[in-house]
Write a structure and sequence with these properties.
The chain is an alpha/beta fold. The chain has a domain of about 80 residues: Nucleotidyltransferase, domain 5. Helix content is about 40%, strand content about 15%. Helix 3 packs parallel to helix 4.
Amino acid sequence: MQTTSNNSEGEPMMEINTTPLIDVMLVLIIMLIITIPIQTHAVKLDLPQGDNPQQQLVDPVKNKIVVTTNNAILWNGLPVNQVQLRQYLDISQQLNPVPELHLQPEPNARYELVDEVLVSVKQASVSKFGFVGNEAYAKAF
């Protein structure tokens, strides 16, 4: 049995075997892909490490509650409701040392609202508490 081929006279083949060349190129591409560092698209920011925003409204030395004639409660000059007032009182009592709390009701403020504020102060177990602006009452009458 004789196999037939195009090269029956034993002449050298003129075509290049490209299979090893392709194999080497594939290995080189894989090595290149592996050695390229992974690109991250992150933006690095140094964010401030702040406290709770409510804690920033609590002065570590002294805090002032004002009850106005317009039935508003002001905590260090900012209007608050009863729930916020209680939260600020609780935060202030957790500080070390405990800050002073000053209550300044305006002369014509509703007594019921002042009483509600006093109840909140008592429930928060405020230890350093005082009334300020009592001279306004002497001028009111």
